[in-house]
Amino acid sequence: MANCHSLFTSFNSDELKLTATKKDRMCTSREDLRKRIKKHFAEKHPEYKPRFYIQGSYKMGTVIRTEEDTCDMDNGVYFFPKPSETATTMQKWVLEAVEGATSTPPEHKKKCVRVIYKGDYHIDLPVYYRDSSEGDNSPNLAVKGEGWSISDPKKFWEWYQKEKDGKAQVVRLIRYQKAWSDRKRKSIKMPKGVALTVLCVKHRVLDDRDDKAMYYTLKAIRDVLKKSFKCILPVTPGDDLLASFTGKQRDDFLDELDTFIDNAKKAIDETNQLKASNLWRKHLGDRFPLGEDADIDARERALREKASYISAKIAYTTSAGVITDSSINTTRNRDHSFYGE
């Protein structure tokens, strides 16, 4: 079987993780937006004093760079206590505060104000209120044209931290699934990042190899979704994160999931790493590294076998330089110890 673990970890570190320079630009932009919002409210609406909270995938460490090399950050804008103005008005005031921050006009989305740094990233500014800055009361999110809706990103982050349990592989699995979604969302409806996160955290199957862990986790997710196509947010407000899927969209997604699982199984069973990597690339995209045109597992087994000869002090070398355990027409190797094992 072709071991593609190293290809997955390279994919994660080289292609999916944010670069240091991009993170620096995003943090600089975040601070600029905060200053603009504070200044605008101090001058125009001094009765409201905004506070801020980084949330979402950036805070959880699961944010990825898309195929277009873009990404996002959620920077919550909080007010205490409940404003006398409508939710939509509070969004509009935040929108006014960040106008001119970039050359692209900010967008008033349903659940946030979006500031676009063209071709690089965008920063979403969801607006909340809490009854008090003290205690454990859940915040309410401004929803354009509808009002306030209870939502608690901090409790979701706490749930994620507890369930992740320090397992770095869980973070990588979420990133891989987001890369899959980024690749396929151009042709079919895919679950949003928060749904993929919940599904992956709740149904992850860990393994020493990321390729196997991905395969087993996808299978576990499929088994659950084919019984009941739901993904319930584990904290307030407990929404079904897949409720917006139509019947056809559900079927299209499950068909794509089946195809991915089938190709993942073929990739794991394949002996040639190059052929295996091409199967993974069908779903993860061309950024996924190409493997070697060789049977990597067989080579690793041969190396381990030679190491065992040396360690057992029964190693001989042929005239062609091949290490063997045969004493016929060979030269006995000098004894060698592997220190630190």
From TrEMBL:
GO terms for molecular function: 3',3'-cyclic GMP-AMP synthase activity; ATP binding; GTP binding; metal ion binding. Residues 50-128 form the Cyclic GMP-AMP synthase DncV-like nucleotidyltransferase domain. Pfam families: DncV-like_NTFase. InterPro entries: DncV-like_NTFase, GAMP_synthase. Keywords: Antiviral defense, ATP-binding, GTP-binding, Magnesium, Metal-binding, Nucleotide metabolism, Nucleotide-binding, Nucleotidyltransferase, Transferase. One of its GO terms (biological process) is nucleotide metabolic process. Signal peptide: none annotated. It catalyses: GTP + ATP = 3',3'-cGAMP + 2 diphosphate. The keyword Nucleotidyltransferase applies. The keyword Glycoprotein does not apply. This is Cyclic GMP-AMP synthase.
